[in-house]
Amino acid sequence: MHKKVIVLPLVLMMVFEAVSAQGRGMFNDQAVYVEKGTKSVGLSFGYNRWDASGDDGIELFSLLSGFKGNVTVADFSANGSWFVKDDLSVGVRLGYDEARMHVDSIEFVSVEISDRHYLRQAFNGSVTCRKYIPLFSGNILAMFVEGRLSGKIGYVKGYENTVQGKEGSYGDLYEVSAGCCPGVSVFVTDSFSFEMMLPFLEGGYNWQKQNGSYVEDGTLSHSFFSFKPNLVGLRVGLLYYF
Q1: Per-10-residue mean pLDDT, the chain, length 242
Q2: Which of 148, 153, 242, 241 is nearest to 202 (CA)?
């Protein structure tokens, strides 16, 4: 499995290079999107929110019924890079992400749960390598593939309001991961480009140290690997080149 995670991005890069070398259609090996020695700084963000309401709420996964509440997922990151070759850059990315969920009510196997809250906040950092592939024989529009090695540290808590106050659990979150994010970039001026990027391949490991009033101190760990576009993870960004 780990070999596949490493080999697949390399295969994709080789395919892109092979197609561009043919000089046909929309790929052209003579076109340069960003020249060697250029530097860039940028911002990217994503935001998603779901609201469920109504007298009877909604059904989820055919297991949960009567769900009423809301879920919000947002993230923000700043990045900087340096082009070591034409259309090839290395850089760093620093970001913050947050997920909030408020449950007014939900029913699971005839057990009703109400007034529950969940919050996850985390800071993350990545080392990146990005390859641009100019489209339509020009330097206005390009595809790109960004590889990342990332680390994350954060905080997680879940609680409910009772007559005694807030009761629940909390813990520290840690994560290491590697991923591949393809996207599209377009220059809107000579120095600024707009881009859209979608997580496509990611694997890693995270663990959480948990404390709380319902459980004794413990650790929860999770190994993960995904190979599919994450539409919820769609990011838009703006980069400045100098």
Answers
A1: 47 47 49 94 91 73 72 93 97 95 75 81 97 88 95 89 75 93 94 92 88 68 81 86 96
A2: 148
Fold classification of 2-241 is Porin (2.40.160)
Question: How much is the pTM?
Answer: 0.76
